[in-house]
Design brief:
The protein contains 24 helices and 17 strands. It is an alpha/beta fold. A hairpin with a 3-residue loop joins strand 4 and strand 5 (92-101). The protein is globular, with a radius of gyration of 25 Å.
Length: 600
């Protein structure tokens, strides 16, 4: 902020991918929105150029600030970011970004001072939500440096719409050739989108229309099912139906099962839309004939890929192998063979980080300050750097800025352009924006949690290895065994090991013994209840087993139990039956794994 006050802040000018900048920012905040119970939507108008020249870090910084505020002040509502083209002079374009929310809104008294430093709506807002309001002041200064303006409309109790306009140039060199084509296969095909949030349904439908498809958006389950039935009867069936997994009226799996039960000559391909952290298990997808599962907010390019792949897949609604894309199936971290550098000066934190990476099937080299990081990059082509922000001699912020400068030098002195993940002990408002402004790409807060680390690394790998995806097993060859890290949360096991005390019984052995003695009868109860058609008993047994499995880190087993519980509660015993064999197989794997852990 002191640099802005002194007029020292300058803008970079580099060719960049605008779509990646906007969608990547929304993706980074998707889990935060999910934690608030918010639906996050990202929509880029089709006329907006993808490749431009300007300062993507500053654009992302402003967008991140506005989106973070919108999510923070919205609970169980909707937050959307949209982008449209206002003017194209041939050499430069004027863009308008809008961030809308259905949150608490801003009072008339606070509106005149909202862009002043250290100001929020009132003191109670600061106490409840944290922060100082400094981010809006910085955002205003950045936007004005880009020959733009920023403003908002808001109604107390109804929400806000913050917008900003900036001027950027067309790229200095031709845009890179497309790495993926296939949109021509979508022209004229028909897609129906069902999501209880109208913003999401319309956004996905609009993206499909931009690909040359005919699309309809629906928020009512019954209306959507009726449209599928009527169009099939009229001889104009839908080619693809996208269904939201979590809806208040009916869950997505129930809708899919209803669609598959309809007598249609040409049933549609089925694609599921899911919130972050709600990915479907491949066994569940196969059992329900689901071709793919897209994570929201939906990216335009990923939607195109999935639609093309779905239309090229086998018979519609068949229980084949689900399509694997970066947003539909967790990347195999161990299979990536990514070169990782851990920049951390604290020896204890080094060991914690290295152990967590090892549990994910990864290894890393260590640097203790920024000078060592730069020296390491001159020797080795690292893909990812976990960058502690508070290192001695040269901290993570300065190191990231130096890396951003050096990768633009010709010839570059560094062996690679790594994906930078900020790691900071601070949890203050504005820290994420500060990291992004320094040139870092993602953000982790201490103490590190295995699941958070895993998710950030997955996102990083999709950037450094965009073609990386799970390969289908070779026909006739035995399917590869799933690694423990994909099925089990190894941090839970490690945590139980660390509870050991000299001369006392092993807590891990005690809990494993209790789990196995209790869970084997539960599996039998689930099977017996399903065979007898007793849905309530099956749901109750699955619920109990789900809790036990979660406590020991058996996350895949817990997810399968949750699926059976949900289907049984809905009275759909046949659907629950399709998950029984995958559950029994996973239980056997968990049982063998836990026994081996106790014997170590």
């Amino acid at each position: 902020f002191s640099k802005i006050e002194a007029g020292k802040l300058t803008l970079e000018s580099t060719d960049f991918d605008l779509r990646d900048t906007v969608e990547g920012t929304a993706e980074m905040l998707a889990q935060a929105a999910r934690n608030q119970g918010d639906e996050l939507v990202c929509r880029i108008a089709p006329e907006v150029p993808r490749f431009l020249r300007g300062d993507p870090v500053r654009i992302r910084q402003v967008l991140m600030n506005l989106l973070s505020n919108a999510i923070k002040f919205t609970h169980r509502g909707e937050v959307s970011v949209s982008l449209r083209l206002l003017e194209d002079s041939g050499s430069r374009v004027r863009l308008r970004f809008e961030v809308q929310d259905s949150g608490i809104g801003i009072s008339d008294k606070a509106k005149p001072i909202i862009f002043q430093a250290f100001t929020q709506a009132d003191g109670s807002t600061t106490r409840r939500f944290g922060g100082t309001g400094l981010g809006l002041t910085i955002s205003k200064q950045i936007v004005e440096l880009m020959e733009g303006r920023i403003g908002f409309e808001s109604t107390l109790g109804q929400g806000s719409n913050f917008w900003f306009e900036v001027v950027v140039a067309h790229p200095s060199s031709p845009p890179p050739p497309a790495l993926w084509t296939g949109r021509e296969g979508l022209a004229g095909r028909r897609v129906l989108v069902l999501d209880d949030h109208l913003l999401t349904a319309r956004c996905v439908a609009d993206y499909a229309v931009a690909c040359g498809m005919q699309a309809e958006a629906h928020t009512s389950v019954e209306a959507a099912l009726q449209r599928v039935r009527s169009e099939a009867a009229a001889g104009a069936p839908w080619d693809v139906v996208l269904v939201d997994l979590e809806m208040p009226e009916s869950d997505g799996l129930s809708v899919v099962q209803e669609l598959r039960s309809q007598p249609m000559v040409n049933p549609p391909r089925l694609v599921m839309l899911a919130n972050p952290g709600a990915r479907l298990d491949p066994a569940v997808m196969r059992a329900n004939g689901i071709t793919a599962c897209l994570v929201k907010p939906v990216k335009q390019g990923r939607l195109e890929e999935v639609l093309v792949a779905a239309l090229k897949s086998g018979a519609p609604g068949a229980a084949g192998e689900p399509i694997s894309t970066g947003d539909t199936q967790i990347v195999s971290l161990a299979a990536s063979k990514a070169r990782i550098l851990l920049a951390e000066d604290n020896p204890v934190n080094q060991q914690v980080g290295l152990r967590m990476l090892k549990s994910l099937g990864l290894r890393a080299d260590v640097a203790t300050n920024g000078h060592e990081v730069l020296a390491a990059l001159e020797r080795e082509p690292y893909d990812i750097i976990l960058m502690d922000c508070q290192m001695p001699e040269m901290d993570g912020y300065e190191t990231s800025r130096r890396i951003a400068e050096l990768v633009r030098v010709t010839p570059p002195p560094l062996k690679s352009k790594p994906f930078l993940i900020a790691v900071t002990a601070n949890a203050m408002a504005g820290d994420r924006e500060k990291c992004l402004a320094a040139g870092m790409h993602d953000y982790l807060s201490k103490p590190l949690k295995l699941i958070d680390l895993s998710r950030v690394l997955e996102r990083a790998l999709l950037c450094v290895h965009p073609a990386l995806e799970a390969s289908p097993p070779v026909q006739g060859a035995p399917a590869p065994q799933e690694s423990a890290g994909e099925s089990m949360d190894l941090s839970v096991i490690q945590g139980l090991r660390e509870l050991r005390e000299p001369g006392q019984p092993d807590p891990l052995a005690q809990l494993v013994d209790l789990f196995l003695r209790d869970s084997l009868p539960r599996v039998a109860q689930i099977e017996a209840a399903l065979l007898a058609g007793d849905a309530p008993a099956a749901a109750a047994a699955a619920h109990t087993l789900k809790g036990s499995a979660s406590n020991l880190g058996a996350r895949k087993l817990a997810a399968l139990c949750a699926t059976i519980e949900k289907q049984a509660k809905g009275g759909d015993v046949p659907a629950a039956n399709t998950v029984l064999e995958p559950l029994k197989g996973e239980f056997q794997r968990v049982q063998s794994f836990l026994k081996a852990e106790v014997e170590r």
